């Protein structure tokens, strides 16, 4: 059965974790959560004047599509900056070439539909700040702490022998 969300049913709420300059608002109820979507994450977002959407980022395991419902904003990508207006649709591919950030450069709010695919567990990277976000758990780490896969595994036979002897 289709679910219809009318504009009169939606109320925008600011994320409790928002900080100065990143006070994006999301329609409540969260649309994809409300309908228990299995393959898409989608929300209607409101970006007030002089606010940024999120830090500059890209997704490793998700494609993203945005549609500007009303207003205008500036989009930042690896290719530079571009003005987006009501009616524009933007597709962001997976990987660093799909990096993006939005900023409302106008004096009126901008509303847009944000749709993201669900494929496994998404990893979101933030090139400006060197962070990695394991999205499903909202666990954020700095890239500089990245280590080799086998770090700490060098003496595996000795460790096994110690564990075997300990458990005798």
Short description:
It is built from two helices and 13 strands; from the N terminus they run E-E-H-E-E-E-E-E-E-E-E-E-E-E-H. By secondary structure, the chain is mostly beta strands.
What does this 3D model show about the protein?
- With 168 residues, this protein is mainly beta.
- It contains 2 helices and 13 strands; from the N terminus they run E-E-H-E-E-E-E-E-E-E-E-E-E-E-H.
- The strands form 3 sheets. It has a 6-stranded antiparallel beta sheet.
- The chain is elongated and about 70 Å long.
- The model has no long low-confidence stretch (mean pLDDT 91).
Secondary structure topology:
Layout: E1 11-14, E2 25-28, H1 31-34, E3 40-47, E4 58-59, E5 64-70, E6 72-77, E7 80-85, E8 89-92, E9 101-103, E10 110-117, E11 123-126, E12 131-134, E13 139-142, H2 156-166
Antiparallel strand pairs: 1-2, 2-3, 3-10, 4-11, 5-8, 5-10, 6-7, 6-9, 11-12, 12-13
Mean pLDDT, all residues: 91
* Stretches with pLDDT under 50, minimum 5 residues: none
Helix content: under 10%
Q: Quickly give the structural class.
A: mainly beta
Task: Sum up the structure in keywords.
168 residues; mainly beta; 6-stranded antiparallel sheet; 2 helices; 9% helix
């Amino acid at each position: 059965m289709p679910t219809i969300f009318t504009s009169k049913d939606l109320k925008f709420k600011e994320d409790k974790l928002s900080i100065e300059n990143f006070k994006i608002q999301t329609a409540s109820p969260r649309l994809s959560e409300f309908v228990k979507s299995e393959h898409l994450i989608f929300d209607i977002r409101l970006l007030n004047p002089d606010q940024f959407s999120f830090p500059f980022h890209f997704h490793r395991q998700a494609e993203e599509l945005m549609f500007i419902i009303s207003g205008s904003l500036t989009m930042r990508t690896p290719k530079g900056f571009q003005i987006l207006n009501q009616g524009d649709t933007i597709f962001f591919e997976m990987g660093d070439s799909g990096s993006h950030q939005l900023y409302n450069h106008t004096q009126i709010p901008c509303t847009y539909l944000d749709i993201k695919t669900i494929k496994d567990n998404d990893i979101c990277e933030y090139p400006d700040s060197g962070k990695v976000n394991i999205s499903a758990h909202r666990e954020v780490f700095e890239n500089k702490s990245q280590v080799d896969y086998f770090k700490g595994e060098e003496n595996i036979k000795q460790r096994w022998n110690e564990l075997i002897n300990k458990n005798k």
